[in-house]
Design a protein that fits this description.
The chain is of the alpha+beta class. It contains 7 helices and 14 strands. The chain has a 7-stranded antiparallel beta sheet with strand order 1-4-13-6-7-8-9, with no helix packed on it. The protein has a 7-stranded antiparallel beta sheet with strand order 2-3-14-5-10-11-12, with no helix packed on it. The longest helix has 13 residues.
Length: 329
């Protein structure tokens, strides 16, 4: 029988022989952070910031501004215009005789004041083959329209075509960016005569003082192009394309749209670029937090060309293929 003092020793020897450590050095300790790839260099990030397209990134989202850096109407005028629009709902589409329908088809018209009293406000319109607008200095915004619509809900598209483009141009004979405003746009009537196109319901407009795009937007619009300059020719168009019957049926059931796709675009000095095109129903327009959204511009109402002026600009308005430097084919 072993003595008690010999038992611990014999147990220790047996344990050492049974549990041997693994061969080789102990494993190293590696953290998750050590396993991550290193971040890109500062120079790489600068390259992306300066030229996003080179990195394959989508364009940045368009920003709605609270006001324009150059010209803004008062809040009182905005409330007055909203009240006017509530009082006068959009007109139903009209039927026109053959002569007017031919003018619509060929994009021919003339420019007239929305309010005849504009002549007393210093506005003079002269006919010179095309139409020339001259407005003397006045602290009021004024809006003019084409004599006949450039798009008719009941007559366009016509002759079996599935699409129809309404288009016209303005030539800036004289404009001072600091003191004058020239806006080119479209609207469905009626429209308040003291508002620029794009500020109220059923209207779009490109404003030359800040180069921004306005769609039922009483605030500061969205970045779009460079401000207009004297001597330039600016064109604006809307292409209405009838939807396929199956798409119409689906959208009529779920309430997501009407019968027409609408593509808007601008030209500058006879050039059209994809950056100046936009879908009327894209999110930045159709979700504008304004009563009506883009209602009235979706092909179910007559649409008129519009020119808004402020200050003392001289503008020539051009209708039809014979007078425009760019024309839809």
């Amino acid at each position: 029988m072993s003595t008690p003092s010999s038992q611990p020793g014999s147990f220790a020897v047996s344990q050492a022989e049974t549990y041997q450590p693994p061969q080789g050095p102990p494993p190293s300790r590696v953290s998750h952070a050590d396993q991550q790839p290193p971040p890109p260099s500062y120079e790489d990030w600068m390259a992306v910031t300066e030229n996003p397209s080179s990195a394959g990134l989508p364009p940045p989202p368009t920003i709605h501004y609270e006001d324009s850096p150059n010209h803004n109407a008062s809040e009182f005028e905005e409330r007055q215009a909203d009240a006017w629009c509530r009082q006068y709902p959009l007109f139903q589409p009209a039927r026109f005789d053959n002569d007017v329908c031919l003018n619509i088809f060929y994009g021919k018209s003339s420019i007239v004041p929305l309010d005849p009293s504009m002549a007393r406000q210093g506005l003079r319109v002269e006919r010179t083959g095309a139409t020339q607008i001259m407005k003397t200095k006045s602290p009021m915004y004024q809006c003019l329209r084409s004599q006949s619509p450039l798009y008719s809900a009941l007559h366009s598209p016509s002759r079996g075509a599935r699409s129809f483009t309404a288009y016209f141009e303005v030539r800036l004979v004289k404009v001072d960016r600091k003191s004058d405003v020239v806006a080119i746009g479209f609207f469905a009537p009626p429209y308040p005569a003291f508002r620029l196109p794009g500020w109220q319901r059923a209207s779009i407009g490109i404003h030359g003082d800040d180069g921004r795009r306005y769609v039922n937007d009483t605030c500061g619009g969205m970045d779009f192009t460079k401000p207009f300059r004297t001597g330039e020719i600016i064109g604006l168009g809307m292409t209405f394309e009838q939807k396929q019957s199956n798409a119409m049926s689906k959208e009529s059931k779920d309430g997501t749209g009407g019968r027409t796709n609408v593509q808007c675009f601008m030209t500058r000095n006879g050039e059209r670029r994809s950056a100046w095109d936009w879908d009327l129903h894209e999110e930045m327009d159709s979700t504008v937090d304004r009563p009506g959204g883009v209602t009235g511009l979706e092909g179910d109402k007559d649409v008129y060309a519009s020119v808004g002026v402020y200050g003392n600009p001289v503008v020539e308005v051009r209708f039809g293929k014979e007078t425009c430097v760019w024309w839809p084919h």
